[in-house]
Amino acid sequence: MEFREFNMRKLRLFISALIIASLVISLTGISSNTANALVPLSCDEGFSSTNGNFYYDQCDNICSPDSSTSIVVGDNSALPAATVSYLDGRKIKDLAEQNKDRYMYAQTKTGLPWQVVAAIHYREAGMSATQSIFNGAKLGTGINVDGQNVVSDPNEDALNAANHFIKMASGVYGIDLSVTPESITLEQWGNAYLAYNRGYLYKQAGKTYDQSPYVMNGFDASHVNMSWVGKPADPAVSGIDGNKAGALSVLVYLGGAKLSSDCSSSGAVSGDIVKTALNYTRDTPATDGMTDASLAKEAYRKAIVEFNGAPASYPQITDCGRFVSTVLHASKADESFPAVGVGSLIKYMNSSPKYQALGSIQMNELMPGDIMAIESHIIIYTGKNGDYVAADASYEQRVPSVRNSSSPTWMIANGASVWRLK
């Protein structure tokens, strides 16, 4: 009986390994530094619906794209079923095919994938063959409200829009779209679309592309029926966006970008510091005295052993430096990051070309994924997640957990410096 049970356990482990391996999906149009969220050990709808981090949804199971809540499009790229149904109903693939010569002309001249241009055309003009890609004006109407010349030739119009897209992406967010499409991350595509649609206003207002319906509507369970953020970022529109699909959703729908799932049993999410950090932290702040390893997230107990080489026990389980290091290694954002020691981590970030040293900055200048450190403590700024904005552990005091704004505020008051991955 014991022998039979042992073999059954081995069989289950083998099957589990095959399932995990089968879920690793290659990218086309999006680099492997961006991946879907791993299904967490617990699911809190309230937390997921209020956090502001792009693509972090505790209740989103992209690792099982055959879920009833999502539909596979292209090569294993999952979009919410409602989004796919909406785009199918508008016959977007048929319209894309009808206009494809126009989009291909722009691709030939600029190297920008035709689906990228098609997604702009969708948002600006519903892919109408008689309307400009710039802002939906009728072809041949001359200078539009944005100061762009709306020509009569649809091919030249597509080329003008593509060049404007490239120019705005570079001018607003410093994104170089002249590289191969496969090296452009999902975040960069998102910022590029935002740059095309009032990105400079969003940037000035401290808003990000994942808050823009123009970019993100219908992309995942956390971005459905999105509302415009309002003035000053959206000076001309307000309320819920009537278009249920953003440019990124259309890009994926048309096969111009394929999402990948890189699922780890430890909770790591490939290429994303924020998602990995949040998968490793308690969902509410740990108080001083919460030092027992059993109080730490199970995912982190696995990860600290796998990615840091430290035992999942006190006091290592409470070490702030080991927490940050584990996140950087597990997410594959930086697999050269030192294992421990705040001083060593600071020295490394100051000397590594992977990081931009920002020095002391204010709260409103922080971005999700920023690493804040003083001589004796280091934390990860995760951005707005309900009442919480950061994640950390505290040596011999508490296991990793989310933190509210008082944590980064305290760090700033104590002269913290900030580093940002380039």
Architecture overview:
- The protein is of the alpha+beta class and 422 residues long.
- The protein has two domains: 1-263, no CATH class; 273-421, endopeptidase fold (from Nostoc punctiforme), CATH 3.90.1720.
- The chain contains 16 helices and ten strands.
- The strands form three sheets. The protein has a six-stranded antiparallel sheet.
- Helix 5 packs across helix 6.
- The longest helix has 21 residues, at 2-22.
- It is elongated, with a radius of gyration of 23 Å.
- The model is unreliable at 1-77 and 260-268 (pLDDT under 50).
- The best one-word shape is elongated
Mean pLDDT: 80
Profile the largest sheet.
6 strands, antiparallel
User: What Rg is obtained from the alpha carbons, in whole angstroms?
Assistant: 23 Å
Which structural class is indicated by helix and strand composition?
alpha+beta
Determine the strand fraction and express it as a percent band. Answer: 5-15%
The count of domains is 2
* Order of SSEs: HHEEHHHHEEHHHHHHHHHEEEEEHE
End-to-end distance? 56 Å
Task: Quickly count the helices.
Answer: 16
Give the fraction of residues assigned to helices: 25-40%
Biggest sheet strand line-up: 5-10-6-7-8-9
This entry's quaternary arrangement is single chain
How many strands in all?
A: 10
Q: Which ranges are low-confidence, i.e. pLDDT below 50, for 5 or more consecutive residues?
A: 1-77, 260-268
